[in-house]
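Researcher: Predict the fold of Small lysine rich protein 1.
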Amino acid sequence: KGSKPKRGKGKGSKKKAKVVVKEVDILSPAAMLNAYYVCHNAPACLELRGFPWPGSPKKKGKKGK
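Model: Structure tokens for Small lysine rich protein 1 follow.
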């Protein structure tokens, strides 16, 4: 029976990939089409885009079973 030499599970040096942050236009045609289907009103659209409406009620999370 041929057995391979056992190697320890040490932490190897992994190279981290650079994360490129890309500027996204929230008023682009693709973003507007997405907002048309996802958002129900202006406050919902602004909140999903990262601009919360002042005085808006907080969303309640769904409870899992």
